[in-house]
Amino acid sequence: MRAVQRVVGRALPLDRANVDTDQIIPAHWLKRIERTGYGAGLFEAWRRDPAFVMNDLRYAGASILIAGANFGSGSSREHAVWALDEAGFSAVIAPRLAEIFRANCLKSGLVPVELAADEVTKLLGLVHDDPRIEITIDVERRTVEAPGLRATFALDDHAHVRLLEGLDDIAVTLAHADEITAYEAQRAAWLPSLRD
Amino acid sequence: MVAAMKRTLAEKVWDRHVVRRATGEPDLLYIDLHLIHEVTSPQAFEGLRLARRRVRRPDLTLATMDHNVPTTPATPVDDISLKQMEAMARNAREFGIRLYPMGAPEQGIVHVISPQLGLTEPGMTIVCGDSHTATHGAFGAIAFGIGTSEVEHVLATQTLWAGRPGTMAVTVEGALPRGVWAKDVILGIIARIGVSGGVGAVIEYRGSAIRGLSMEGRMTICNMSIEAGARAGMIAPDDVTFAYVEKRKHAPKGAEWERALDDWRALPTDAGAHHDREVRIDASKLRPYVSWGTNPAQTVTIDERVPDPDALEPALREAAGRALRYMDLTPGTPIRDIAVDAVFLGSCTNARIEDLRVAGDVVRGRRVRAGVRALVVPGSMLVKAQAEREGLDRLFRDAGFEWRDAGCSMCLGMNPDILGPGERCASTSNRNFEGRQGPGGRTHLVSPAVAAATAIAGHFALPEDLA
Ligand code: SF4
């Protein structure tokens, strides 16, 4: 995973709640066996609507997505994160991110930022008024700053360190291999196995 | 652990799987069973290869092909899908994982085959790169969906970092009215608590109405927990559970079975244990439900009308208006007046043998309405074979349904079974998101009984509405 200390950039305001991962990346894009090649599928159906905010050139090049509550709900497809990443997004801000989506963000270094609903509303307003404003997400300090707004977001220490240092999650876990082996030694014998 | 501490089912199962717990960290949780399918695993195996890592416990890992497979032998597989299926086969071979590929008698939707094989048992932790993994919670297991990077992590370590979830109880008391099925219970629950009603929690479904359900009905309920935003859903194991598991291929045998039973009997929530939240539902008030919108909480009973967004609470209005535009529905239209183009009987929610029996009964001696495309896609090849032994295939075929091989099929529109733009479908699946069953397609979630009656009537109907 790449390390990420700060995200600085313009934002795309997607003022909708419950945006599900079928909208972020439709299922027919999921046939690929690679981790790349999903950017063009991002919001594919909605992009066909000329009025969709992503088609508004004033927001071209945005690196922060601001969305309504429960963003990323539905399917567990990590492809949703890969598509956002490839389309140039480095962070998503919403009042609440769906849990699996949030976990997936942390695996790729897409910064998941959950702010209070009124802070997100304010941020959306700022970006609507002036698409050129710059937003700074400081992962180290867990803050979001925009002209006229300063907010903090929660990120548990574990996720915080991994984002900042871009740690390989599996390597971190394998450092506890002894504990895993000890656990395995006391598992009940009746638990199912595919060995036979 | 303090002996006197009262714990919920979810807490008991969680706590016994903690490999490591330290402040400032989520728990490191041991995974008893990892289910794999062709769509969310190729990048995980690629990651293992690049890092020269092995699969830690191939014996606790089961792979199948379900999402992408065609469900008719005649359907040509496109090159990209084929590559994905080949990758699954190659990865299973290279890493020593049991695979039930297309054509195997055990193949089917991952959440249908694991319980059938006796791999899903009480008290386990089960994960899969698929959000409907909560299905297995029906057995009193903690089961949840994960992303591809987490799939890689479980492959390499057989563990997962995860915060201990909150607990929530949904208690459904009373007798279900005739014609109300497990699918209606869960649609009714989601309509009540909303798509974020279960956030952060494992929902424990309980109460006499839940106890009265078969294992298949319980799986239908737990399956849709994610649609209420929950991490997982669970039901305490009881004699119904044990009877289902006993003698299945991977179930404990002999003395092991007795030991397992003793253990499982201690799993249910202790009397007086505390759930963070509780919702109570009167079973006698439930009716058959039909979703009208583009999320599973946008649902009404079949006796109602398409709602007027302006009559809804302000927070729901805008989304409701957008949903109605997408669904091309007019407020005030009686649900029964809505005509459909297609009927899909399938998915991990409702494609088990009992579902097919209920629907088969409805279509017996009747014909699918002219112009309606109707599909039955059994949840697994074992379900299909059993249905054929019971003659259900004949009932469906004679009525004008297509009778398919097992797979996810039109649940998510990855294989050639998709809705055309603007087509409207009564579907026994679990998601009515925009385009879920094909770009521009319109999905209404219903029970198998309503799906079958709707196929005959050509518009939403109950079996008793049919002449
Ligand atoms: S049937 Fe549908 S919901 Fe179930 S696993 Fe397949 S795609 Fe997912």
Give a quick summary of the entry.
Chain A has 196 residues and is of the alpha/beta class. Chain A is 32% helix and 16% strand. Chain A has two domains: 6-165, Aconitase, domain 4, CATH 3.20.19.10; 167-196, no CATH class.
Give descriptors for this structure:
heterodimer; A: alpha/beta; Aconitase, domain 4; 2 domains; four-stranded parallel sheet; 8 helices; globular; B: five-stranded parallel sheet; five-stranded parallel sheet; binds iron/sulfur cluster
Can you give a write-up of this model?
Chain A has 8 helices and 8 strands; from the N terminus they run ββααβαβαβαβββααα. Helix content of chain A is 32%, strand content 16%. Chain A has helices at residues 21-24, 44-47, 79-86, 99-108, 117-129, 157-165, 169-174, 177-185, and strands at residues 6-9, 11-14, 64-67, 91-94, 111-114, 135-138, 143-146, 149-152. Chain A has a 4-stranded antiparallel beta sheet, with helices on one face. In chain A, strands 2-3-4-5 form a 4-stranded parallel beta sheet. In chain A, α3 packs across α4. The longest helix of chain A has 13 residues, at 117-129. Chain A has 196 residues and is of the alpha/beta class. Chain B is an alpha/beta fold and 467 residues long. Chain B contains 15 helices and 19 strands. The mean pLDDT of chain B is 96. Classes of the chains: A alpha/beta (196), B alpha/beta (467). At the A-B interface, α4, α7 and α8 of A face α2, α3, α5 and α10 of B.
